[in-house]
Amino acid sequence: FALLVFNASFFPTPTDAGIVAFAMYYFTYDPWIGKLLYLEDFYVMEEYRGWGIGTELLKNLSQIALESNCSCMHFLVVVWNKPSIEYYMRHGASDLSTEEGWHLFRFDKEHLIRMATGQ
């Protein structure tokens, strides 16, 4: 994992808030699209939203992805988080669940144990 942080000291009038935003990401590979940057977590403290911090983080992530020869960036957003969905779509993100019909699945620990032991 790698982490980008946005510190409040970057503002013209520094605050003592410390880190006000972060993006946690890693690189992975998809056999159909190649290397990609996977955005695991992206957060801007509520009182700092609307200041361009998220846009700056996305800009930095995009630069990192391109410099690393990634073909795209993937991430998940929970269906009830409409403000985030709208934010990403305003920045050009595609909703693969509607456009390509992808669904997220999970094997919980119990099922991992069953499969690992051949049950």
From TrEMBL:
<dbReference type="GO" id="GO:0004145">
    <property type="term" value="F:diamine N-acetyltransferase activity"/>
</dbReference>
<keyword id="KW-0808">Transferase</keyword>
<dbReference type="GO" id="GO:0009447">
    <property type="term" value="P:putrescine catabolic process"/>
</dbReference>
<dbReference type="InterPro" id="IPR000182">
    <property type="entry name" value="GNAT_dom"/>
</dbReference>
<comment type="similarity">
    <text>Belongs to the acetyltransferase family.</text>
</comment>
<dbReference type="InterPro" id="IPR051016">
    <property type="entry name" value="Diverse_Substrate_AcTransf"/>
</dbReference>
<dbReference type="GO" id="GO:0019809">
    <property type="term" value="F:spermidine binding"/>
</dbReference>
<dbReference type="GO" id="GO:0032918">
    <property type="term" value="P:spermidine acetylation"/>
</dbReference>
<keyword id="KW-0012">Acyltransferase</keyword>
<dbReference type="Pfam" id="PF00583">
    <property type="entry name" value="Acetyltransf_1"/>
</dbReference>
<dbReference type="InterPro" id="IPR016181">
    <property type="entry name" value="Acyl_CoA_acyltransferase"/>
</dbReference>
<feature type="domain" description="N-acetyltransferase">
    <location>
        <begin position="1"/>
        <end position="114"/>
    </location>
</feature>
<protein>
    <recommendedName>
        <fullName>N-acetyltransferase domain-containing protein</fullName>
    </recommendedName>
</protein>
